[in-house]
Amino acid sequence: MIEGGRGKRWAYFYCPLFFFIVGLLFPFYWMLVTTFRPDGELYRPWNRANYTPFWTTNPTLEHIYYLFRETLFSAWLWNTMFIAIVSTMISLFCGLLAGYALARLRFRLAGGLGTSIFVTYLVPPTLLFIPLADIIRTFRLADTPWALILTYPTFLIPFCTWL
């Protein structure tokens, strides 16, 4: 039986924490191992004698070379970072101004306006799709990063203001 505070701490805190951390980090370890694993090891059946699922015996950079030389991954990564940074900056700026006004300035409808912003945050995104699609079509932004930059703040601004 576990006696004292130290044993209970191990049983109730450190053991669950260990399993949580292993469960949380294992997918990242698996991605790292499979990144450097050659195709022959990736497709090896699990019942072979030399099957090693948790490490690779012949690491290679072949998949990384393929990713950067044969695909448009760099362009995709740049587009993703550009859209994320610009839409986040727009949302933070608008949310900061609105949040400051609701928290610090005293006016008659401040409480109701704060509640309505919170309720707007709870509106399902599918209801916003139809008017947003019309706006994107009107301004001819379809198939451009600006369509996403215009769309993402509609979800982020109420959240930033509420937060």
Kindly describe this structure.
- This protein is mostly helical and 163 residues long.
- It has 7 helices and no strands.
- It has helices spanning 4-35, 39-42, 62-70, 73-104, 110-122, 125-138, 145-162.
- The model has no long low-confidence stretch (mean pLDDT 87).
Please write out the topology.
Blueprint: H1 4-35, H2 39-42, H3 62-70, H4 73-104, H5 110-122, H6 125-138, H7 145-162
Helix pairs in contact: 4-7, 5-7, 6-7
Shape: flat
Assembly state: single chain
Helices and strands, in order, run as HHHHHHH
Number of helices: 7
Number of strands: 0
Low-confidence stretches: none
* Major β-sheet annotation: none
Using only C-alpha atoms, the radius of gyration works out to 25 Å
What share of residues are in beta strands? under 5%
Q: Give the terminus-to-terminus CA distance.
A: 46 Å
* Average of the residue pLDDT scores: 87
User: Which bin fits the share of residues in helices?
Assistant: over 70%
By secondary-structure content and strand pairing, the structural class works out as mainly alpha
